[in-house]
Amino acid sequence: MFANHPGYLDLTPTQYGTALTWLREVGIVTEDGSLAHSGSPVELALFEAALLNASPLWLRDADQLINMPDDLPEDAISAGEALGLSPRQATAVVHTAWGKVDAAARKQIGSAGEEALANLLTELTGVTVDYVADYADGLGYDIAVHADGLHLDLEVKTTTRRGRLTIYLSRNEYEVMRDNPAWRLTVVFLNSERQAGAVGTIDPGWVRRHAPADATPLGRWESVRFDIPPDAIQRGLTDISDWAGPRLSGRHLLRAGTGERPPAWISAAPAV
């Protein structure tokens, strides 16, 4: 039929076979040939699968680049039109796809940053490091640091990008910050080898000033995104730097900065 029916001569049988294999691989079609998304429009699922499979460079920044249908890139517009999607539908699918990509990337990069910081802290003599994120979720911080005269609960956010720092803070993390004087919001920059290239801290006062507020008891925010400007970040960890004193060299990643504004590690960090 594919070789003889005029309605199917736009593609070769091999191309049809390759397309069917891809549809099965991305979960649009089951092994027996049935649609796997019978409860929702298949064109939406197909567009999302195509985005996730192609992973265009703009997708990882879609939350910043695409706020409305007019912001859609040409390749997304063409693909959406081919599937009969309106620009608004295509925009919604782009945001859904970005959420899945971003969540996976944040989890992977976040774990690498936590481990890198834990390793840095473990190298300090007299410091006990408890990597709580490795076995517990919901405490509101990732690493607990103990030493004689020192206790810190570090919430770690990790970035691999230059000139832009976007972090997400849960309601639980925010409330732990308000109630726990040992809580610190720590930023780790990872270089291309996924090693710590710099460490910084964000003042909890800055977080409080820019956090949303519940308008009524009937509405409550559960997660917030912060776009952190470079001048809100201080190089190093002040508490560790003060505790260790001269034991930290001037170039040590944990040594607190001397008023660099903006911190050089944010503006000069290589993109990966």
Short description:
With 272 residues, the protein is α+β, with helices and mostly antiparallel strands. The protein has 9 helices and 8 strands. The relative contact order is 0.09.
Structural account:
By secondary structure, the protein is α+β, with helices and mostly antiparallel strands. It folds into two domains: 6-102, no CATH class; 123-268, Trna Endonuclease, Chain: A, domain 1, CATH 3.40.1350. The protein contains nine helices and eight strands. It has helices spanning 13-25, 42-54, 62-65, 74-82, 87-122, 171-179, 204-210, 238-244, 264-268, and strands at 128-130, 143-147, 150-159, 165-170, 183-190, 196-202, 223-228, 233-235. The protein is elongated, with a radius of gyration of 24 Å. The protein starts with 12 loop residues before the first helix and ends with a helix. Residues 259-265 and 267-272 have low confidence and may be disordered.
